[in-house]
Amino acid sequence: MPLPTLLRLHVLLLSLGVALAVLSGCADPPVAADAQAGADGVEPDPREPDDLALKSGLSCHPRSASGYTAGARRAITVVDVDGRPVEINTAARFLEMQADAQAAGVSLYIVSGFRTMEEQQYLYGCYLSCNCNNCNLAASPGYSNHQSGLALDLNTSDWGVYDWLARHGADYGFHRTVPSEDWHWEYLDGGAPGAGLCESGGATGSTSHGDLAFVGLTPNGAYRNGLWLKVKGGAHHVRYFADDVFLGASEDRAGGFPVRVTVQYLGAKTFVAKGYDAEDTAVAETRVTLQVVAGETPKARLKFISPADGGSFAGGMWLKVDAPASAVRAVYSAGPYALGESGVADDHFAQRVDLTTSGWRVLQAVVYDRDDTELGRAYTVIDFDAPAATVKFENVTEGNAYGREVVLRAATTGPVAAVEFFADRWSLGKVATGNSHAVLRYTFQQGGRRVLRAVALGTRGESLGEDTVAVDIVP
Ligand SMILES: [Zn+2]
Questions:
Q1: Centroid of ligand 1 to alpha carbon of 176 (angstroms)
Q2: What is the dihedral of CA 308, 309, 315, 317, to 10 degrees?
Q3: Ligand 1 centroid to 127 CA: how many Å?
């Protein structure tokens, strides 16, 4: 970083007196950092040593916050580590890592953790206007992994820290994801080690035993048939059982792992919820006995024909469900995400889907008859390995000159539904991919240098990657 930049930065820090969490505006995916030479973030850790001593470690004031993943809001739990707000599961893993680093003689601290929407909007505004935050790159609001709670900026400029992280970070699920920012690490291996972190006032990095509890159900209370089972607690996904019969499963943690069930026989029923970690290992269990009284007619428990429960899959797959003869429609979902629906009764309601998130996934099919009455539900829990999505400009190259009329052509691999093209910060348009290509014709009004960007979008509009080239437009 050149000296004038550093001076400007210090003036900024002093004059604003704003928390570093706000100012540490490093680039996060989907903004490509490596293509933006010199646009790296603030030097981490200008804190005073006294400040550090006061703020080190875990302080348990668990609270709910609005996290954002790929633009979608969801409730997350935040605690304070090293004086910074950090998502609870990220915090639990970080504390383990910090303790082991300390044992190896390396002092590891968090410089910036979870960011609120307001903070990200501020940083993004700075990036657009270049009036603040040193004009650093920032992901658009809702799309920074500092908002999902997964990203931490660490004190990698301190002695030994970066080397230790490079060797051991992955053992704790932390990965460096922004090429130009060696301080930006993300907890990508999933799981919910944060449950219980703050329960006995314990400031240990305990990863033990996500505990589960049913929500909204009073033991021995009477409930009409056709009831929602929901639990809260630390798990990646949850399966429900009654009398050892599998009822359903959910990966929708934010929604309380909701599953709607009907029972065949009324009366006292003991419902069991089992929580599993990201590796599908059982980590928690809870049960409640309810009196189920007359309500809906019992629904059939249906089965997926494809993909088979417990299997491993990669890439696109066909969903098929074994449905009764009166079925006319099957609707598929994965947790809160709709996967589409099929009316092809004579091929088991086959529906092609491209999942984009790796890990154990819970898929659900709800089957309806001609009157739109639900006939039953099917569940399958699979280990999914998402193919890498890439996008690359094919016909414009870094540093070359082009006329005002440019055909932008990008090649994609993996589950890319559309490509959005940008020139500097302006969107030129969004084009659906066909045959692994997206093409956009655009006429520039003025000449000059333009940074062209092609952003690969998944089926839910989430960013999967991008390519950037700087070119000259010659009128
Ligand atoms: Zn960062």
A1: 10
A2: 40
A3: 14
Other residues' Cβ atoms within 10 Å of the Cβ of residue 247: 21
In tens, the pLDDT along 29-57 reads 333 333 232 223 333 333 333 333 333 46
- pLDDT tens profile 189-223: 777 777 666 653 333 322 334 578 898 888 777 78
Q: How far apart are CA 368 and CA 242, in angstroms?
A: 24
CA of 350 to the centre of ligand 1 (A): 42
The CATH code for residues 390-473 is 2.60.40.10
- pTM recorded for the entire structure: 0.47
* Domain boundary assignment for the chain: 3-187, 209-297, 299-387, 390-473
CA dihedral 277, 85, 83, 113 (to 10 degrees): 80
Any idea which residue has 């680093």 for tokens? 101
Cα 21 to ligand 1 centre (Å): 10
Q: In what order do the strands lie in the sheet with 184-187?
A: 110-112, 151-154, 184-187, 174-176
Mean pLDDT of 303-329: 91
| CATH class for the domain made up of 209-297 | mainly beta
Q: What's the gap in Å between 183 CA and the centre of ligand 1?
A: 7
